[in-house]
Design a protein that fits this description.
The protein is of the alpha/beta class and about 325 residues long. The chain has a single domain (about 5-315), classed as Alpha-Beta Barrel (TIM Barrel). The protein is built from 14 helices and eight strands. A five-stranded parallel sheet has the order 4-5-6-7-8. A three-stranded parallel sheet has the order 1-2-3. β2 (about 50-60), α4 (about 70-90) and β3 (about 95) form a beta-alpha-beta unit. The two termini are about 20 Å apart. Bound molecules: zinc ion. The site of zinc ion (ZN) has 6 residues, from β1.
């Protein structure tokens, strides 16, 4: 399929590749030049694989692991300005999602407003919880102090992409002796799904019913467990949300194919939320353009759905027209 739009594609600036030096592996070192490049190798691969537009976002953990709120705001601004300058060279091929200093809800709302109004960004991508003050601190955005932030997101009408990050060292007991499971193979989805469930259970979508949340990796495993979640929650009273989790998930969430190129899981996601709520994504450079597109172009789904998921839904959701 030509003219695809890929919506979870990452870039870095030198400040944020340094933040990922915990991954001192050959794999990570190989990724760095690809994260820093937008217009050379990346664009050539997009041409070869039928991707017309990439929606770019800062690499994880990015701004979310900066312990000082002022420095987080500074880094977000710097990354967003760099992204805007990069997009300006090829506005026909790239669009941007804002990095946000969620450590300070007011600063995050102001930066989102600036990015949408002045830099013409199409939404935000945030790497799950933020740390503030102490490395063991994890702040989740269902907390009451974030309600005014969500009011701004709803008013601007742009999607908020909730992206994975590493769990905190202090919360890794289950992974002891099994460090290979901490990040993308398992821990990322566990962390991000939990954050999404907190947003749903908190009543956030009762207060702001027009919010649009995007989850990668075909929904961070939530579609597979959604029936059981509501089945069991009917027996457990006390959560603030007024409606079943499945209702929020079908009305407020969009899912992308980033890094999960499995046709069985894609079909399950389509059956769970509908083809209008799925979007194509690669997760470049952590995933490969060729592998993602060869899979997607041949996946055993209806052609009408392929065109929605590969292009149409993203054009509408991110207002790329
Ligand atoms: Zn990603």
């Amino acid at each position: 399929m030509q003219g695809k739009v890929a919506v979870e594609e990452h870039f870095a600036i030198p400040d944020t590749t340094d933040r990922s030096l915990r991954y001192q592996t050959d794999y990570w070192k190989g990724l760095q030049p690809r994260l820093l490049d937008v217009h050379d190798r990346r664009l050539a691969e997009m041409d070869r694989t039928g991707i017309e537009i990439e929606v770019l976002s800062l690499n994880s953990n990015g701004v979310q692991s900066v312990l000082d709120a002022g420095k987080a705001a500074e880094l977000a601004r710097k990354a967003n300005d760099a992204l805007a300058a990069s997009i300006a060279k090829r506005p026909d091929r790239f669009a941007g999602l804002a990095a946000l200093p969620m450590q300070d809800p007011q600063a995050a709302a102001a930066e989102l407003e600036r990015c949408v109004r002045d830099l013409k960004f199409k939404g935000a991508l945030v790497n799950s919880f933020s740390q503030l003050g102490s490395p063991d601190d994890a702040i989740y955005y269902d907390l009451p102090q974030y309600r005014p932030f969500w009011a701004v997101v709803e008013r601007l009408g742009v999607p908020f992409y909730l992206h994975p990050r590493d769990p905190l060292p202090s919360r890794r007991q289950a992974y002891e002796g099994h460090p290979w499971l901490i990040a993308s193979p398992w821990g990322f989805a566990e962390e991000t799904a939990m954050h999404a469930l907190r947003l749903m259970g908190s009543g956030l979508f009762d207060d702001y019913p027009k919010l649009k949340i995007v989850l990668g990796h075909l929904g961070e495993r939530i579609p597979y467990d959604l029936w059981r979640l509501d089945h069991r929650l009917r027996k457990v009273p006390g959560r603030p949300a007024k409606r079943a989790m499945g209702e929020y998930f079908r009305e407020n969430f969009y899912l992308t194919t980033s890094g999960n190129f499995c046709t069985t899981s894609l079909i399950h996601a389509i059956l769970t939320v509908g083809a209008d709520r799925l979007l194509f994504a690669v997760d470049y450079p952590f995933e490969d353009h060729a592998q993602a597109t060869v899979w997607f172009d041949a996946a055993d789904i209806a052609e009408a759905d392929r065109h929605k998921i590969g292009r149409g839904n993203a054009m509408a959701l991110f207002q790329l027209g």
